[in-house]
TrEMBL record:
GO terms for molecular function: DNA binding; DNA-binding transcription factor activity. This is HTH myb-type domain-containing protein. PROSITE patterns: HTH_MYB (PS51294). Keywords: DNA-binding, Nucleus, Transcription, Transcription regulation. It comes from Arachis hypogaea (Peanut). Residues 121-131, 207-217, 400-415 have a biased composition (Low complexity). Residues 92-106 have a biased composition (Acidic residues).
DNA sequence: TTCGTAATAT
DNA sequence: GATATTACGA
């Protein structure tokens, strides 16, 4: 009946489609590790199309129509056709993300499925399989230097065009949205911004819950103000990667140390897109804390007693320290991250010494737990850099060579 | 408006 | 427990 008529054109479509699929498969082949499911899906699709083409099964024909032809919308059968395939895929995905695929699974979306398939040609990664996406994102992440805790992968985008009005605004873009609003305001600069500049793209650090929205509760704790400002949502976390931290240190150095530097100045010097004063301020706060705490120890305590302290800025420093620090600074320029040395040195000496405090002689040897990296951001820890800077800073105070040097890189500035 | 600090969330 | 965000006062 109509069949015959339709079939002809369809067949044509199939061939083309099959070719496209094959082409697709070749492309994916390269990433077979990353996109095993995609590969499989494509292969299956090819096979299905071929079968249909050959006319082996009537059922398939129906399906095929839907699939290949764009008319699909009209035909019911189509659904069935693809559904199975999807389902097959879905289970795999489930392993890593259930929800993702559930959506697709719905019969109603069959239509969508089709679309996805087509899209797959364009974006292998995204659509083909959720699992792949994740994997990919993972390895991509590893590469990234910093992340403004953006939102999860693109997956969302494709999936829910319908649902997500939020995102649609930006199109592919992501997080900026929350950020800007929530944050003070300067963010605006960042607006779409993202850390495009030097820093590579930004993967979500904790892809995990990143979905900010959920956290709506976030506000709860704090209070109401926030709502006024923006949406009640809490801003996404920014993870301070090594690179970012380096910049921070560099800026700090230029500004004469953590004590003298102000968040705004630091931010300006850092020249990082999307970085807000609040973020810098927060990081600075942490940095100062770390820097100071350790200080207390002053290995030299013994010496300290004997040696007169010297006030630098607000800090008391031992002459030696001070000299060293200064020198360090001078030289510091050479070594990238080192600036810290300067700053730290002084501090270290500082507080503790003041005999006034009962203080404490802390065995400086200990590393501070403080700067350790948090589980959240693993990212770059490995980086060869291990920014000494910070560590030094801390140790610096201690100055004692031995301990300082070793000290571990454990502390990662990062997060 | 910015900064510093404390409280809070993740 | 550490880190980042938010709130609040100076």
């Amino acid at each position: 009946m109509q069949f015959s008529e339709k079939i002809q054109p369809q067949k044509m479509g199939f061939r083309e489609y099959i070719e496209a699929l094959e082409d697709e498969r070749r492309k994916i082949q390269v990433f077979h590790r990353e996109l095993p499911l995609s590969l499989e899906l494509v292969a299956q699709a090819i096979e299905a199309c071929r079968q249909q083409l050959s006319g082996t099964t009537t059922e398939y024909n129906l399906n095929g129509q839907s699939e290949c032809s764009e008319q699909t919308s009209t035909d019911d059968p189509v659904f069935e056709e693809f559904i199975p395939i999807k389902k097959r895929a879905s289970p795999d995905c489930d392993e890593e993300d259930d929800e993702e695929y559930y959506d697709d699974g719905e019969e109603q979306h069959s239509h969508r499925n089709k679309i996805q398939k087509e899209d797959s040609t364009n974006n292998n990664n995204n659509n083909s399989s959720c699992s792949t996406d994740k994997k990919k994102s993972d390895w991509l992440r590893s590469v990234q230097l910093w992340n403004p805790d953006p939102q999860p992968p693109k997956e969302d985008v494709p999936r829910k065009a319908s649902v997500v009005e939020v995102k649609r605004s930006i199109g592919g873009a992501f997080q900026p949205f929350h950020r800007e609003e929530s944050t003070v305001g300067k963010v605006n600069a960042s607006s779409s911004s993202l850390p495009t500049a030097k820093t590579p793209s930004s993967p979500p650090v904790p892809a995990t819950s990143s979905t900010g929205p959920v956290s709506t509760g976030g506000n709860a704790g704090s209070g109401g103000k926030r709502e006024e400002k923006g949406q009640g949502q809490r801003k996404q976390r920014r993870c301070w990667s090594q690179e970012l931290h380096k910049r921070f240190l560099h800026a700090l150095q230029q500004l004469g140390g953590a004590d003298s530097a102000t968040p705004k100045q630091i931010r300006e010097l850092m020249k990082v897109d999307g970085l807000t004063n609040d973020e810098v301020k927060s990081h600075l706060q942490k940095f100062r804390l770390h820097t100071r705490r350790p200080t207390t120890m002053i290995p030299n305590s013994a010496n300290s007693q004997t040696a007169p302290l010297f006030l630098v800025g607000n800090i008391f420093v031992q002459p030696q320290e001070y000299a060293a620090a200064t020198a360090a600074i001078a030289t510091s320029t050479v070594s990238s991250g080192e600036l810290t040395t300067v700053t730290t040195a002084p501090h270290a000496a500082i507080y503790a010494p003041v005999a006034t405090h009962p203080t404490t002689i802390v065995p400086r040897t200990q590393t501070h737990p403080s700067m350790k990296k948090s589980p959240k951001c693993n990212k770059l820890e490995d980086v060869s850099d291990h920014s000494h800077s910070e560590e030094r800073a801390n140790h610096g105070e201690g100055n004692s060579p031995a301990s300082s040097s070793s000290t571990h890189g454990t502390t990662s500035p990062g997060c």
